[in-house]
């Protein structure tokens, strides 16, 4: 091949194509923001944006800059092909049924502008009225009775709980519960793939499929022969509060763009009808044009780290030498609205707590050495820190499984309700596997450890028998295969980042303690702190977990620690746990809305793991205090000796880890002259093992 002329190469256009821009994911918005900043400097780059529902004017205005000559014209507009759809609004539905739909009257205190965050960001309005399941059931019955074709019915509901409630109501109707006339199916993301596929299977002639679905049926799939769509107008949105770091799953009104998508499902193959359980006025005045961008409702740690890394690379230095900070970039370069400054400040504060950022007086965050490493890993900062600490502790292999399972959209464990013996089978694997009863590397009760045990048991099977093993033990074989692939990807990311060097010298070190579940629990504390809770025992209300900010919560329904906490005695030792996230759900009661706080991925840990791998530690008499919050008494009253020894050991550990992080390579702390520091890690690990073994029985 002849050499390519450099001038010719740079005069040719480079085309970048970004599809589905209307979804407004974090990755899409950050990519667009970077492109808007750099495109004027690289005119040979041509950007093509594609979307089925997004408003083109939003992105046209976003990329329009007369000073730099940047503009984004509409090159091609392809109208979609859809069959005619008859629209019935709420008053039409009520007239046909001869009854009004019940709407719960909202309390005056519930009418606050909770769709406004910090006075600057508008999100979708919450739905505080319950769904009238009797009305929806009667409307479905009316459609079945009045229709003369064999088209199926698709009903959009906000979540799995609402689907189950409507299913119970329909079960009381003789017509709808007659399998020779109607076949009712559920469709939501937490269902096993086999049950999801059932909506595509053929039914006997004359039988109508009634699919109760969440918004996953809006665009990602097409169910053949659906001719009637009932749209409740609601969806559940996961919002993140930076003030108390709670993920809140709230029912909100869907956007107009999503409502159009839903109605379109009735006209995919022939003429259809859409039954909207809201008024035309509500559609026009109360619903947002588009779904809320993810950057407004999601945690921002990974986004802030990426922006800080781009700043380190000098990306925000323009041609006129004017430089902006990472925070200024996030505030001014996001399409259709940036996250509020207070959210960015709280995110930076959290990243400072975990040691990834340091702030100056002008609110200009800078990456620490640890933050530099974390910004280059394609995962949540907490999970990245967990991985890096596992390299130092020599237990990388099991934490690779943790990083992979948490990066999957679904759990490797099938839901307990899929079979009466499901939990029994899963618990057997957990109790007899990694970190289980009598495990050679220590016993640890943790949801993270449970995932490692299940993956190891599956992986140890011959490849041709793994699917059978997963099926018989109620594990998701497809997700387990995904975990296996992600483990390889994350290990490669660690290699490319210079964190590990897999050769004869270092390979043995970073995997030397793979069987040590107690060391893994220390890495969990390092990654998840300050997400720590203490067990509060109550004779009347039962045991619950008290978080740092004073909120009481329980493990979510998928946690293997749920029953352990539920059955905790009213008296006993102090017990501590870490968790991945907090989220609250407004329960879908028939009459009221109750807010419940849940903790995900609950892991019981020893107090020494918290003292040695948690926050800042101070000595007060014979007690060690973490972040002016957790207090642990060590040794005898009136004596500081025990507390001083533990505090000194913590300083040794901190210095060891800091040196390894600063070296760039996290796997080798040996001095070049071969002095006695060579065996320091061994001595440190021996002391650490003794402390953890002493506490092992305390957390069970």
List keywords for this structure.
alpha/beta; 700 residues; disordered N terminus; 24 strands; Rossmann fold; 25 helices; 6-stranded parallel β-sheet; 9-stranded mixed β-sheet; 4 domains
Any overview of this molecule?
- The protein is of the alpha/beta class.
- The chain folds into four domains: 6-63, no CATH class; 85-295, 3-Layer(aba) Sandwich (Rossmann fold), CATH 3.40.50.300; 315-375, no CATH class; 379-613, no CATH class.
- 38% of the residues lie in helices and 16% in strands.
- The protein has 25 helices and 24 strands.
- The strands form six sheets. A nine-stranded mixed sheet has the order 10-11-19-20-17-16-15-18-21.
- Strand 16 (544-547) and strand 17 form a beta hairpin.
- Helix 5 (133-146) crosses helix 6 (160-171) and helix 13 (369-375) packs across helix 14 (381-393).
- The longest helix is centred in the last third of the chain and has 22 residues, at 641-662.
> Largest sheet, described in full?
9 strands, mixed
Q: Roughly what is the average pLDDT, rounded to an integer?
A: 82
Structural class: alpha/beta
Based on DSSP secondary structure assignment, what is the total number of beta strands? 24
Shape type: globular
Low-pLDDT segments = 1-10, 105-113, 669-680
- Percentage of β-strand residues: 15-25%
**What oligomeric assembly is this protein in?**
single chain
Count of domains: 4
- Helix content range: 25-40%
